[in-house]
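[stage:ingest] chain + small molecule (1-deoxynojirimycin)
[stage:ingest] validated
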Amino acid sequence: MVQQQEIKRAWYKEMAVYQVWPRSFKDGNGDGIGDLKGVLEKLDYIKSLGVDAIWFSPLYVSPQKDYGYDIADYRNIQPEYGTLDDFRAVLEGAHARGMRVIMDLVVNHTSDQHQWFLESKKGDDNPYHDYYFWRKGKGKRRPNNWMSTFAGPAWEYDEGLDEYYLHLFAVEQPDLNMDNPKVREEVKDIMRYWLDMGVDGFREDVITFISKKEGLPSSPYYFPVGTGIENYMHGPHLDEYLMEFKNDVLSHYDCMTVGEAPMMTTKKALHHIAEGPDQQLNMMFHFEHMSADCMFFSWLHTKFSLKKLKKVYTRWQKDLYGKAWNALYIENHDQPRIVNRYGSVQYRKESAKLLATMYICQSGTPFIYQGQEIGMLNLALDSIDDYVDVSTLNNYQVAKKLLGEKKAMELVHYASRDNARTPVQWSAEKNAGFTTAENAWFHVNPNYTEINVEEAEKDPDSILNYYRRLLKFRKEHDVVIYGAYEEYNADSDKLYVYGRFLGDTKLLVVNNFSDDNVSFTAPQDFDLASGKLALSNYEKCGTLGNGFALRPWETRVYLWEA
Ligand code: NOJ
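[stage:predict] done
[stage:export] tokens:
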């Protein structure tokens, strides 16, 4: 028998979330750029998926050097996206449809065009100087050897001041000095501003990077990307600052938080998200499951390993069970499209449905990224000049130096964040129905004539309609949300099989991650004849004895209800 525990119910555990990356979601005013008017038009569509919340990637005023993750004004909307009134209309429209709204809170860094930074550059005695990490160089050398997460040094020299400032991301994204209590007060004010307006929570951008080790010591290690990360990926005052945000602000609202947490392990995560008085965040976006085809990040590409993926999932499911809550995702604006990575382009429909089932039937809050629900794919542009994402352009340069141009371009096609940032494909009309402008701001994937929402709406067996069934099934069955998890066939490099258990109700989720037919026998305690086939991505799902032969990329979910 699988051990079960009582899990405390909460709305943030039961919801499913749709992520909107606004620039590419829907253009409502015909200028080629996605905007809030476009979102407003599509609220019914989002609701129709069966989600309960929308997470908006940054909508704030920004020079767009990192497409919104470089914020110049935390209290206003990027004019290209609309106005505060447009935002209020979206907020109201979402709430009226029973959906919550989650904002991106990006406070590890600002834009170099933020007023604070412009002030901080004016001199050592400026009250904003200490909002950032300004340091003198060591002779002709930078203050330390840290490298930016986007490649290149993490320090930029300012001639006027004869000092360097720290930027863990792009040059235009100076890091905020969270050790300065005034900066923390600013962060809390920003939180209150949006919560008072009615938003329901925050996705907190690289929140585990906000505390840097005192003295900012150089690293004994060298990588072209992220050297020095051990000094801030889980810094000395992180707990303190997260607790302060919670006690002073978040606990006074009915809101949720999900923190983005690169290099996170379950042990460290529990420290921040285990339920109880010391809990700092509701959940975390870790990255371990996004490394089944790479070493740490998609540019260090390796062959996909199902065993690696399963190990990570099972660890997170087991280690958090009864203690903390998982955030589940397989795509977002930083990750190439999942069908190209863990699925099969040849079996696009089957594998997209399988991947959806595989992660949404686990315990946790599922996040679905725009376009994922219709199985959008990566695109391969001919020239590096066609790409716009800063990390793509920087990583390409590093890869070209190390591996040559051809390999570097292959990596761009595989790993670029731009893969996930092409306009959402709404129809087979020009520009995929994304905009009425002559051109969309970025390349539309040429496959839009076949892969688009309008087409998917017509087909009851589309990926889109499968997502709807899956989310409905999750909502109607507590076992999917609160059940205990147990993995089977762990040694298989083709099958991912797990069960979920709640009281006397149980589920069996069987996935064939391969182009082959694979035979499967149900584990003891699962009598297929007495179970109900609740979800599947093929027709004619017979059984043979207490098992069946799985077809390529077949997924099946069996349910036994008490
Ligand atoms: C993580 C965000 O998801 C990513 O898009 C951004 O570039 C970095 N943090 C820096 O803000």
